[in-house]
Amino acid sequence: MPRRVARRTAWxxxxxxxxxxxxxxxxxxxxxxxxxxxxxxxxxxxxxGAAVTVVSPxxxxxxxxxxxxxxxxxxxxxxxxxDVAGFDLALAATDTGDVNGAVAAEARRRGxxxxxxxxxxxxxxxxxxxxxxxxxxxxxxxxxxSPALARAVRDELEAYLTAEYATLAELAAEVRRELRAAGxxxxxxxxxxxxxxxxxxxxxxxxxxxxxxRMLERLGVAACA
Length: 225
Fold this sequence. Notes:
Elements: H1 2-15, E1 28-32, H2 36-47, E2 51-55, H3 61-68, E3 73-75, E4 89-92, H4 97-110, E5 113-116, E6 129-133, E7 136-140, H5 147-160, H6 164-181, H7 188-194, H8 197-205, H9 208-218
Helix pairs in contact: 6-8, 6-9, 7-9, 8-9
């Protein structure tokens, strides 16, 4: 038993990061930088409902459109010491390593979680490569050691996780709510069967309603009130 614990501890120490998804609705998030990398960061934050402020002398067209629409706040200047104060999360996404390092250092001093683009040594969290299919999100990370590998795996998953997975995730959530409302429960094995390949095929071949009926059958119920 002690030997097994030691091996698990060593693996955890090497990994270095604890995977998690953050609830950022109305959380104040700072992005320093206005280029393509910053644009990708802002897109994800806005989609999560965060209150985003971008500090940068210039913006991409897409970021400028978000600022014009009032969906983000834009400070049209370079980073200044003290900019990180009051934020819940900071992301440094400029093309200047010294600036990114300064943002990261200030965030660390203030106890604010920070990501510096392509610079894991200055990060207290890293951003995985993502595959999204509706409510289904699959994250791939390598602990910052090889973003290229994470992207390659993500691309393979993109091909595997076809469009019906979005409907499958939607149906699973709907059926779960109905089961709970009816005071019913299903085992993990029943859910495994209910989310199997035949249900996914039904989504494509016969549509949502047929897939839902099959899912309920696999869960051992004919219908939910």
